[in-house]
Amino acid sequence: MEYRQASADFDRFILDVREIAGLQTTNQAYTMVQAVLQTFRRRLDVPDALLFANVLPPVLRAIFVADWDLEEPQMPFAGRFAMTREVQSLRPDHNLSPDTAIADVAAALRRNVDEATLDRVLARLPAGATDFWRA
User: Fold this and answer.
1) Any idea what the CATH number is for the domain that residue 127 is in?
2) Which end of the chain is more exposed for a tag (fewer CB within 10 A), N or C?
3) Which pTM was predicted?
4) pLDDT tens digits for 56-87?
């Protein structure tokens, strides 16, 4: 059933992101979501990343793992400012992510997944994971 509803669920999520972030288009929202997910993924090893991916709806799960360079060094969680700049660095000519990008995507994610399950998984991940997904 989760795959049957995947497109509708993703559309609802991306509209939530666009609204929360005050963006003009869903393309802008998509770039921001992709950048936030990649920024988070860089801070996890593969088993932890897969644990997190299992909480995500199918389309977000696919975005999270797409184009993953497994040779890229794992980065430590940093301050929100530094990680936001990392988000904003993805396709900078087309990226209109606001300084609230991570919190905005977190708020939309929490609207669209089971929060208790998300929080249980985040508690199992490295220090910094729970703070990253605070709205």
Assistant:
1) 1.10.490.110
2) N
3) 0.95
4) 999 999 999 999 999 999 999 999 999 999 99
